[in-house]
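Quick log. Single chain, no ligands specified.
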Amino acid sequence: MFKNYINGEWVGGSQIYRNINPSDTRDLIGEYALADASQVLEAISAAAKIQEKWGLSTPQQRFDILDAAGAEILARRNELGDLLAREEGKTLPEAIGEVARAGNIFKFFAAEALRTGGETLPSVRPGVGVEVTREPVGVVGLITPWNFPIAIPAWKIAPALAYGNTVVFKPAELVPGSAWALADILHRAGLPAGVFNLVMGRGSEVGQILVEDKRVQAISFTGSVATGQRIAQACVARRAKFQLEMGGKNPMIVLDDAELDVAVGAAVNSGFFSAGQRCTASSRLIVTQGIHDRFVTELVRKIESLKVDDARKAGTDIGPVVDERQLAQDLEYIAIGKAEGAKLVTGGQAFGKNPDGAPGHYLRPALFTETSPSMRINREEIFGPVVSVIRARDYDEALALANDTEFGLSAGIATTSLKFATHFKRHSQAGMVMVNLPTAGVDYHVPFGGRKGSSYGPREQGRYAAEFYTTVKTSYTSG
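-> predicted structure:
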């Protein structure tokens, strides 16, 4: 059994979670201990006890630990990628790429530990000096989703530790394997006991305690809008710092002047890779009239050539969706789309076994055309391989449709026009904008985050992470 990691020790739990491979539900990856309430409180106590000492540790100590963790992750990328693909269902190349991203994130923030700077300013008063410095926030609770089970934990854990915070980490219940492997790597990298703690379990139990405990000074959460709103309310009530990354209903505009192969490639990657289970996935394709029919024809051809199979099998383009609940949600939205009058031109069928006979949560990628902006499939996040096409008269209407959403995470445009590309980058109401690229896929050293209902609080990743994981102090000295 794989155990929780609390105060430098591996600790069992009162219950276990059976981690099942969605590509082959006969395959048990392992049994993982679920933390109970007392163990979560123990983890918080351990993190609080050592926080001041860790916050005063040297940048070199933090660099050495994070750099060692990053190096091991990169050295084991194939092994860890296989584990990730096995438990989450993204294809092996995607999984290995995610692991490499996690390793690079740790190495980036190892270096950032050495670069935490400040300012020395003259006061308006003679003989007085001013220093502006950054200090750790304190104990940080990290709550992560199942769709990026090592990259998202990495981009929360690494900056938290780099800037001198202690951590209590609750991964998604569905994907404990990658989280446990990451905790094991950090343990062996030399973190003092209590600095980092792993508590596996249900959000309604483990996560709720983290959110409500006054010793946890900050919460960073990635997940659903509804849960994010509850976390925000709880944190405001006790004046804790919080950072939320939530949903998306990301648009990709395809203009008449787009290169057809570029547009189709970006749309397929954005909408269907990782089985569409990315908050940056583009599930709304807004296509202008002149290219619409050619684009749809070529897009259907490309979709129907995709191989849906075991995530770890060579040649698989799309693996299974993560579990039976997600599959049921995807199928429900496909039924809603049909009932709303959208035309399902390809895909949308679930099949319970792959060509080798292994039972899994498989779904053929679905494409709807002749949809209207008001349809639920164009308003609500589906989080699966289900994409809609919306016709637009011209660029102006396409831009208006792209911005007509409560979300604002990522947006894309396919065009050869510098004029339209430049205008879109300025006027898109999204935190991240892609030109002739998939809407999913962000470098590890640049800020990640959105606007409107997608995100709240400072950006994640890159140097912007310091805004959340540190607090600013202004000091005056006379003489």
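The chain has a mean pLDDT of 97.
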